[in-house]
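#dry-run=false #mode=assembly
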Amino acid sequence: MDQLEPREQERTAVKTKRSKEYYKSLRKKLNNSKYLLILFAPVLLYYLIFHYAPMFGVVIAFKDYNLFKGVLESEWVGLKYFQIFIESPDFLNLLRNTFLLGFYNFLFGFPVPIIFALLLNELKNMYFKRFVQTLSYLPHFISNVVVASMIVVFLSPSGIVNRMISYLGIEPMNWMIMPEMFRTIFVSSEIWQHMGWEAIIYLAALTSISPQLYEAADIDGAGRFAKLWYITLPGILPAIFIVGILNIGKVLEIGFEKVFLLYNPVTYETADIISTYVYRVGLVQGNYSYATAIGLFLGVISFTFLFGANYLAKRFGQESLW
Amino acid sequence: MRNIKSPFMIMMFLLAVLAACSDSPSSSDVETDVEANGESDGERPTIEFYTNEHPSWPTDEDWLVFDLMEEGGQMNIDLTIAAEPYGESLNLTVASGELPDLLRMPNYSTANRYGNDGALVNLLDHIDDMPNLQTWMEEFPEAARATLSHDGKMFISPNIGIGETNRMLYMYRQDIFAEHGLEIPENWDELYAVLKELKSIYPDSYPLGFRNGTDKLESFAPNFGTSLNYYYDHEKDEWRYGPIEDNFRALVEHLNTFFSEGLIPSDFLSTDTAQWQELMSTGTSFITQDYIGRIDEFNLANRETNPDYTLLNMAPPAGFPGDEQVAYSAHKNESGYSVAVTSDHIDTVIQYIDWTFSEEGRDALSWGVQDETYTEENGEKQWMKDYQSPADLRNDTGISTYATYSWFDYDAHMSLFSDEVKQAYEEGRQYDEPIVPVPAFSPEEQEVIAIQGEAIIKHRDEQIAKFIIGDRDLSEWDDYVKEMEDLGVQQLVDIHAEAYQRMQEAELN
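#status=ok
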């Protein structure tokens, strides 16, 4: 005991010294950046309170949730609800619809704002450019309810679309009851709604390209297309990648509202997606645990998508999220 | 070190507070509440009353009906009008654990769910303090039994009377029929003939117009002696599932013909209320099936431009020639009062609810105050003010708005209708099918109904719609029936039969 004591003391002394040094430098660091930290604090709090704290609620996916008893006291049921979902006869269909709708939305919806921004960038008349830009992001602010009813009215048997195609000698069709048309209708209306809005980020990226590059290219005798290809496009490539990765993460997160407003029993086979299913089974019928389990399931897949996209972007040496 | 620790402490504290918010109330919370409220002697206790409102008659706190309720229950009302959708607001309130004393429950199954969760008072536990309800239950045992939960508890107060307002029936354009010498169809074959005739006179019309897509089959199916859902066959004393029956196929066949010949709107699947109103008002549709109140609504609005416009009720066409003419029974109401177990004023609320089942309570909550709002002569009550319609009455007094009644004297509305609607009420009743009972399910059964039942509903709606628009040939009907059976229809029928059995055996006292 006696022999050990000095050593122990030494060790603790070293320890305290080390930790003292550590805290000292940490304190210094904190002190140096205290204003930045203060600026950051509201954001941190926001995420902790509104995004991380509610995550605690996902435990009801593993519980037989009783509204009145609350989250903590409800009984555990393990993976029961996940199993029910995977075994349900609609599972594959729902997954396919959700994925395909999101995938087509990404495939066709992603390049459009880029092309649109590039085209806008080529416009020389400033007033016209502003006008077009403003006009293009207006639909983004129209509520989905209004957009959906516009679509239904336009595509009804006596609607404007059928009148127009009847001039071309095509038979009027009842678009809303054609399951094979649902994805086309949905995706094209999404593009129409959000094209202008999503172009904003590319337009912002465009302004950061140095005009000197264009001047130099002019001197080298580059044409319009060459400038677009060798300067403009590479200039906004980082933005394209970031937006692309984020969009891939959202492939499965298709807005519930619009699908719900546009679908009807005949189009279920292509239109019924996981979120509308969750609404019908989970919320209308009050099965919160089941709804949460499906939501969590969806979240995990979305996370995988996002992670995979980011990994690939990194792999190809491009911009990535982290 | 203290500098670093304190922010963490604050964070932990915040999280702890958040976690505490989502918890149910501990017993200590309830105790402190009692002290805080401290009923001062002699004064009426204040009851928190949680309800919602109909957009057509927005709540006015000064409405006569609240005075009547306060007087009848010897209480003060602290009113909360919840945001829509009501179901979700209610969920949030229940989950918060801080329940109001008196709640409007939108339907029996919601009440039973919360009741099973332990949030609501079983009224039968207090039945000794409710002499009026006891007497009432002896008079209307069916209405009382309908509210019971799967284990025989009453978490929601029963009601009777106001359901009449939901009556649905067939209506036709009398003026158009008279102009062309058409006769009211007595069965669906004749209906088809009349629709054809109308279509030939008005080629751009869709003579039979309705809203809500395939949901409307719920109203049509009883004509064929079947149902869009699980139903109880009173004659054979058994539960069945309508959409796989041959009679249902007959209905679908008719609708398929109607669709292919343009007798119903080609976009009937997405026809909403506004579009349907347009169909009815622009002379595009001449026959429809909807709420009885629409008679006055359409006639009043359309006579401004077309004085001849006359929409009248018609007898429901029978599915098959020579069969009995039976109409869908929508005249029921499933909402009622529930009492929170956490309430400090359970006795007061119980007393109030009991009062709504007394004759005095019924008269007050249906007619207001004698010689102030109504007069009585030879047993006939009359409103003193000149109300144009029940809507007028509601907006003025609040009488017959949500959760202001249990036992409603429907004559209070009847006296306000046009002769056309009065006549429709008189005539409509003779075709009533027996009301399909709504059995209460246990939580386990409820889960099967929600999850497995949803797959059945989806397949039914999808395939029925396809049969109607001709996307699937009716020769495949047997395959469809097989598909439905494979989804487990029988299991759900059994659940209904079992739950119904329980309901019949439940003791009321």
